[in-house]
Amino acid sequence: MPSVPAGLPPAGLLPRRWAGGRGSNVRPVAKKAAGTPATALLTTENVAHQLHPYDVSADAPNYGALVAEALGVAPERLFKTLIAEVDGALTVAVVPVTGDLDLKALAAATGGKRAALADRADAERSSGYVRGGISPLGQRKRLRTVIDSSALALTEMYVSAGRRGLQVSLAPADLVSLTAAITADIKT
Predict the structure, then answer these.
(1) What is the chain's percent helix, strand, coil content, to nearest 5?
(2) Structural domain includes residue 161
(3) Which of 96, 67, 65 lies closest to 167, judged by CA?
(4) What is the CATH number of the domain that holds 84?
(5) Residue 144: closest CA among 60, 75, 85
(6) Could you read off the pLDDT tens digit of each residue along the chain, which spans 188 residues?
(7) d(Cα 75, Cα 135) in Å, to the nearest integer?
(8) Alpha carbons 116 and 105: distance in angstroms, whole number
(9) Which one of 58, 66, 75, 112 has the fewest beta carbons within 10 angstroms of its own beta carbon?
(10) What CA–CA distances, in Å, run from 187 to 65, 100, 102?
(11) Is the dihedral of CA 22, 23, 24, 29 positive or negative?
């Protein structure tokens, strides 16, 4: 029987991982994809994208316009992700930062009657993201998603990458595909 340092149980009682060598239960573990669930999804699905960090306070008035300015992109290409309740069901709405969400149009697009913005805590809990960093990609719960149809006229659009201070640019068709979204005129 191999000798065991003082203070440890006899070798036969040691967990296998301490014994090492053959029969050890120590296994290499694949590294988790770095970043956010949104960026991990894009990487896993091999979707062409680019990350764009910026520094704008989440409480700043006219936040979307300031982010567009910080990134040096036209505001029409920058989209915000909002979570609304349509007839009691949470729904993701992706609209340009230059406009607001038309709740009646969102309800109509999903076949509902009434829509209202979701409570902040409900939006954060269902998406797994915090306000100012909610991405339409990689959400904790897969929700029905509606993207404003103006995105289809673009070759590249910007959405949150899943944390404050980080946007991701990608093709609108890729966003529609990854989120299983429908498109409709939902901005005012």
Answers:
(1) 30, 25, 45
(2) yes
(3) 67
(4) 3.90.960.10
(5) 85
(6) 555 555 555 555 544 444 444 554 443 333 444 589 999 999 999 999 999 999 998 788 888 899 999 999 999 999 999 999 999 999 999 999 999 999 999 999 999 999 999 999 999 999 999 988 999 999 999 999 999 999 999 999 999 999 999 999 999 999 999 999 999 999 99
(7) 17
(8) 11
(9) 58
(10) 16, 5, 5
(11) positive
Strand 79-86 and strand 144-148: pairing?
unpaired
**CA-to-CA dists, residue 92 to 112, 131, 137, 140, 160, angstroms:** 14, 13, 10, 12, 13
Which of 136, 134, 140 has its CA nearest to residue 151? Answer: 136
* Strand extents, DSSP E, the chain: 50-53, 79-86, 89-96, 115-117, 144-148, 157-163, 166-170, 182-184
Q: What is the CA radius of gyration of the chain?
A: 23
Answer yes or no: is 19 within a domain: no
* Under 8 Å between Cβ of 116 and 93: no
Residue type, 16: R
Handedness of CA 75, 131, 121, 125 (dihedral sign): positive
Residue 69 lies in a domain: yes
Domain region containing 74: 37-184
Report pTM: 0.80
Q: How many domains does the chain have?
A: 1
Determine, yes or no, domain membership for 28. Answer: no
